[in-house]
Amino acid sequence: MSLFARTLPASRAAGTLLAAAAxxxxxxxxxxxxxxxxxxATPHGPDVALFMAQPAVxxxxxxxxxxxxxxxxxxxxxxxxxxPHRALGWTWVLLMGAAAASSLFIVGLNxxxxxxxxxxxxxxxxxxxxxxxxxxxxxxxxxxxxxxxxFWGASIVAGAFTFLPGRLMWDLFMG
Length: 175
Ligand code: HEM
What we know:
It is a single chain. The chain has about 180 residues and is an all-alpha fold. It has one domain (about 5-175). It is about 75% helix and about 0% strand. The longest helix is centred in the N-terminal third of the chain and has 37 residues, at about 5-40. The mean pLDDT is about 90. Protoporphyrin IX containing FE binds near residues 69, 99, 106, 107 and 117.
C-alpha cells in the first residue's frame, strides 16, 4: 500500500477535525453577535467598488477560490477518467493551488500573523500533488478520496466561513 493511501485517512480525519473545531469555536465565541448581525443583513449583488479596492492578492484569491467551487462541482457531476475530466481537473488543480498559495500572503484574522485557516492552505498544497500522483498511478480510490475531501473541506467549508459577518465576503454581498 502506498504512503499516500496509508496517510490519507489520517489526513481526512485531520481536515474534518479542523473544520469541526473551527465551527464550534466560531459558534461558542461569536454565536450571539453573529445572530444579531445576520438578523440585520441586507443581501445585495457584489459590491464591485469594494472588490476593486482590495489588494491584488485578495482579488486573485477570491477569483481562484470561487471559480474552484464552480468548476469542482462541475467535475464531480461529470463522467470521470476521460479527456474532459483530465483537462478540467488540471484547471481545478491550478485554481486550488492559486487559492491556497495566494492565501499565504493574506493575513488579518490573527493580526499580522498566519491564522489557523492557514493550516488548510498547507493541507491543500500537500494533498494536491499526492492526489495527482495517485491519478497518474491509476490509484482511483485514493485519487477520488483526496480530491473530494479537498473539494468539500477546502472549497466548500473554507468558502462558507468567508461569508461570516465581519469578513470581506460578507461585506461584498451583505454589508
Ligand atoms: C469560495 C471559496 C473562498 C472564498 C470566497 C475565500 C475568500 C477569502 C477572502 C475574501 C479572504 C480575505 C478577507 C477575509 O479574511 O475576510 C480570505 C482569506 C483567507 N483564505 Fe480564503 N476564500 C475561499 C477559499 C479558500 C481556500 C480554498 C483556502 C485554503 C486552501 C483559503 C484560505 C484562506 C486563508 C488562509 C485566508 C487568510 C485568513 C487570515 O486572515 O488569517 N480560502 N479568503
